[in-house]
Amino acid sequence: MEQKCLFCGIASGKVPAKIIYDSPDVMAFLDIRPANPGHVLVIPKKHVETLPDLPDDLNASLLQVVKIIAQAQVEAIGAQGVNVLQNNGELAGQAVPHVHVHVIPRFKGDKVVINYSGLVELKEEQFEEIQKRLISKAKELASSMSTGTIKEIKEEKLPEPEPEQKGKKKLHKFKQRLP
Ligand code: AMP
Ligand code: ZN
Question: What are the structural domains of the chain?
């Protein structure tokens, strides 16, 4: 728990919120400035700043609650669609530095705009280079995961990971990754 963190405050009950779901690891509550009525934030109770920092054992419970909330929005308030959004790092629009997943119910004719399609053009070799680097790192990360069926990833389809560069620090903080 971080003393100054708003969402740690909500998780511990010190800061009031309209709570929807409360389990030992995960909490869901109404966003105070909703994009639509029923906009919910789902958080791990443990203070973790961004998704890549989230301990493996919390992944499943976080996503499980996201799914429950999305289903509740459809079945209890008539959502006709649901957006699940998650910002990591200031650059990506993360205002509160405690992992949270936005679950936004959508209704015909609402005013929510989510638009990021086709903003950059990449050459075939750029797609391939990015694919190679991401596959390689994803394979390495999946094999070291402590939980879940992701370990059963189909090895034969993936290339060997590049060896870690010597002296290169493992950084998770998005701030430190920015130029
Ligand atoms: P993000 O930009 O992804 O970091 O989203 C932070 C979200 O937290 C925004 O949608 C805010 O409206 C929401 N928010 C900020 N303070 C509170 C609060 N006290 N209770 C509920 N939601 C909050
Ligand atoms: Zn926190």
Answer: 6-106 (3.30.428.10), 124-177 (no CATH)
